[in-house]
Protein: Amidohydrolase
Organism: Mesobacillus subterraneus
Amino acid sequence: MKADLIFINGEVITVDEQNRVAEAVAVKGNRIFAVGTTAEIKEFTAKTTTIVDIEGKTLMPGIIDAHIHLTIYGTNLLGVSCIEPHIQSLEDLFIDLRKKVQSTPKGEWVRAWGFKESNFKENRYPTKEELDSISAVHPIVIIRTCNHTSIVNSKALEIAGIDENTPDPEGGIIERNTDGSLTGRMIENAHMQVFQYASYSNEEIRKGMKLASEEFIKAGITSIHDAGGYGDGAEIIRIMQQAIKAEEVKIRVYAMVGSLTNSHEFVKRMVDAGPISGLGDEHFKIGPAKLFTDGSSVGPTIATREGYTHDPADNGIIYYSQAELNRILGEAHEKGFQLTAHAQGDRAVEMLLNCYEEALAKHPRVDHRHRIEHAGISSPDLQERMRKLGVVVTPNPVFMYANGDKYLEYYGERVDVMYPIRDLIDKGITAAIGSDAPVTFLDPLLGIHAAVNRQSIDGQAVGSNQCIDVMEAIRAYTWNGAYASFEETIKGSIEPGKLADLVVLDSSIMKKEKSEIKEMTVELTMVDGKVLYDLKKVAEREVEYEY
């Protein structure tokens, strides 16, 4: 057999069992055909074969982002971005919001995303009154970067039916001034409930999914584990499947059965409906049943066993009691679902492990691969329980880069066991890296950089005892992600017979200085044997082979 396309003269990081580094790869159809030296792979060349000389650059498996929000990332692109370089102050943001108001019909939502108060000159949230001055007839919502908090204007509160007499929802806070009046700030479940009214149309959601898929592919991401969005989770999954079938979304999706709003209701609907984790094909599969147990690490609203370092009286928010958590996820486990939950603080992680232990005691299952999303603060006692249970963890090293300065302030020495990927690997616990974009940066190379260097954006060391090496970080972003979705036999490494999901970088990642990994870029992304992103258009050139 001859190959359709071959890559030669590269640094081919296979992520196979031996972590071999080869030189060349042959692709036939949508599969990897052969891996070896350049001379060996050239033997599979025919007149119709496309040859790509990657000149010593890295060729690696396609990135599998094990925790990301496809819908939120995509629909964010339709709103006002708070992270644009020109936005340095609240007035800069207000100017963009006024422009959006002018192009938005009266009564329709104006949304902004990516807000982080410390990035603004004023270092504070906007007030409800400031947003009211922008428009009294448009509901306005500004979503904090963590997606756990927002600030809204009076029109938004009116639409959501919230006033001074509205009680705080369970697991949420409607912030009030000292006189009882509303500030407009919605925290945790209060924010989730308000956004039910601010949700996008199905057409906007589908458009956003397409835009997000294109951005992911440019970043070298070929598969994602979608961690859910706002609104009706079942409807989101339906739209997602339609977009994938129409090839508008070209990445592979493992869709968690979870929603940022009333996740327990969505889980119950899916459990009652019959499908379980793993249903689907190589392009789309149903993933684990997912709940939220606590809040945001940079809010901070995560549930900790001890008070925050900067505020010892505060130890966060819990969404469910232990009994509720055990009942909801226990039923999903009994029916055959893989389980997971957003659990950031050590108190939330402990509760989730309690839940898994009870579920497995009642209904033992071999190779369940139940997960913990984030596992933000995970001390050695919790790590040991993870190991014994065979839990898969999806840490987010890029959080240390984006938020490390705040983590030092909020959690003190606990940063040494935050997203503890070094400890997890050493204990034999599978750790699959996720970016959690758009909560923070999408770029997988920045994620690898953060895992290897464990420094904040301003260069502070943040739990440097958890640094891992480059090869370990690549495995956590590829094979481990495939394992977390029960797909390690078909993707996650460059081996004959596996899906041809590949990425070419702009240089050799193994030779790059560790401090410079974040400067690297993706040159080419292949999904299913098709080049979907080619910075240099190498796939459009036919290279004649001399016999």
Remarks:
- The chain is about 30% helix and 20% strand.
- The CA atoms of residues 170 and 368 lie 31 Å apart.
- The two ends are 16 Å apart (CA to CA).
- Confidence is low (pLDDT under 50) at residues 538-547.
